[in-house]
Amino acid sequence: MKRPRYFLFFSLLFFTFTSTFAQLIVDEQQVEELSEEVNLTTPYHTTLTFFFNLEKNHFQPDLAAKTLDIRGVEGDPEDLAIKLKQVLEGKGVIIRTSEIPNDPVYVDSTAGGEPRFYFDAAKVPSIYLEKKGKQWKFSAFSVSRIERLHDETYPFGTDQLLNILPKIGTDEYLGLQTWQLAGLFLLIILTFLAHLVFTFLVDRGLIYLLKRLGYGYIGENYLLPIAKITSFYLIVVLLSLFVRVLQLPAEIWSWVIIVFNTLKPFLITVIFYKIVDVVAAYFQHLATKTESTLDDQLVPLIRKTLKALVILVGTLFILRDGLNFDIIPFLTGLSIGGVAIALAAQDTIKNFFGSVMIFIDKPFQVGDWVTSGDIDGTVEEVGFRSTRIRTFRNSVMYVPNGKIADSVVDNHGLRKYRRFFTTLTITYDTPPELIEKFVEGLREIVLSHPDTRKDYYNIFFNNLSAYSQDIMFYIFFEVPAWPDELKARHEVLIQIVKLANSLGVRFAFPTQTLHMESFPEKKGMIPEYPEALAYEAKLNRFLKEELGRKAD
Fold first, then answer.
1. Beta-bridge partner residues of 379
2. Where does this protein chiefly localize (predicted)?
3. At what angle do helices 178-199 and 224-242 cross, to 10 degrees?
4. What is the pLDDT of residues 234-291, one digit of tens each?
5. Residues in a beta bridge with 117
6. Are the C-beta atoms of residues 98 and 26 closer than 8 Å to each other?
């Protein structure tokens, strides 16, 4: 709030070197051209007549009222003339005599060739001069709008101050009258008082109430910054209402009104920028309650997108309302340029919509193991352009979302069970009774392990290969992650090896065997297996010693 006040002070100093008729800027030689008190022959002379006769040094409102077309309009013409001048001052309309046509037959090409002259079509489109007969006057429509425009310019009874403050004094100091300096001083005091009041209400009232309700953290970290910016905005609104009453000189007021018109959309932009943080915090709280980790990635992206949108829209309003830029050509050029940009950035747009589909369909979450073509790894982050995947080589892959959206993705992270399949090969000299007991022991290992699926598994002697008898070992683990699966595999395989050693089962591997005739004094290479009952005893001993001890 200090910058506008400093700017206003320096503008006051600048005013001492300018020559103005309120908001009408003229040269001294142009004043001498007004040879008659009332001259309505051209827009130039009508304008000069109106403002010249409302100056304090030659205040003749009855002559200024002759520039008004009062046909069909009720009210005192002199009062209407004074209010019209106040409206133009309050709206910050700057009129330069060098820009006013000095042609009795002037026509406005932008108004259908009508004999009209608009002072400022953007700020006061309803105020214009119109030629009637041989005279240029403020149109009857303009005069009929004076009362309404005056109420809009000086709302909430501030127009009464226009009659009260000048009674303080009209002596000039630094280019301003005494009442204007007094009003400026009171306005500065009012600004400080308003700031103190809003600070007290926000810091003491709002935060205290939120702490009593149990939302102290939210109030201090999210709502307090918004409330402070809102208080600044309200102060700016109050200043913009009361500073109009001071009727500052044209060169000063033209800059002051630009400052106020710029501050308003700027502060509103900051308020909405802060509100985005509050909205994002709320959605972040909701995301923590869901099992999906993709929501946690979506919230920061939404926050960044909304902030960028707020900045874009706010900038447009600042350019339009504050700096009086015509943004229509800019938006038109942006739409045309957008087509060219879209053609040049097809891949980027494709990736953006790919990310949208990922967030909508949720084919995977952060932390899932996914496979798609050459892609194989764990999802770490999902962005608007690409997805970051950590491979099992510990490298990072940045995959465009458009490619993921068009590809077949195998999400291993959504598996409820993790399959484990292997073939146990045993030697051909293993007797059938021993195979039966070995298969029975394998099934008991699966049933006793805490992480295996008990309702579905397949363990059978199912093949005779070139060098072995094959047992299919097809089971599932019910574990959440790959490291847990590896741990479960390790435990099961250790139990299989112990079972084989306990029963005397030998695992086969590709070999070539040369059989020689046995001699009475020499024993053959084929091991001697005990009777079938011995297998039962060995299996029971294994189940008791190994699986029983594990169950304990």
1. 389
2. membrane
3. 160
4. 888 888 777 777 777 666 777 777 888 888 889 999 989 888 888 888 777 777 776 6
5. 129
6. no
* Residue whose tokens read 């800019």: 330
User: According to the 3-state scheme, what is the secondary structure of 195-264?
Assistant: HHHHHHHHHHHHHHHHHHCCCHHHHHHHHHHHHHHHHHHHHHHHHHHHHHHHCCCHHHHHHHHHHHHHHH
Strand partners, 460: 472
Distances (CA, A) of 490 to 161, 473, 494, 511: 90, 14, 6, 27
Measured CA to CA, the distance from residue 440 to residue 195 in angstroms comes to 85
> How far, in Å, CA of 92 to CA of 123, rounded?
8
Least confident of 81-85, 422-426, 521-525: 521-525
Q: Extract the tokens encoding 179.
A: 């009442």
Q: Which of 513, 535, 524, 505 is nearest to 430 (CA)?
A: 505
Q: How far apart are CA 276 and CA 312, in angstroms?
A: 14
In whole angstroms, what is the distance from residue 439 CA to residue 430 CA?
A: 13
Burial letters for 450-487: b for 16+ Cβ neighbours within 10 Å, e otherwise? ebbbeeebebebeeeeeebbbbebebbbbbeeeeebee
- Give the pairing of strands 128-132 and 116-118: antiparallel
Lowest mean pLDDT among 44-53, 88-97, 354-363, 520-529: 520-529
Identify any residues that bridge with 116 across adjacent strands, giving them in sequence order.
Answer: 130
Written as six digits, the tokens of 87 are: 């409206």
Query: What is the per-residue pLDDT across 40-84, written as a single tens digit (0 to 9) for each?
Result: 889 988 888 888 888 877 788 888 888 998 887 888 888 898 888
Q: How far apart are CA 250 and CA 15, in angstroms?
A: 9
- Tell me the Cα Rg of the chain: 45
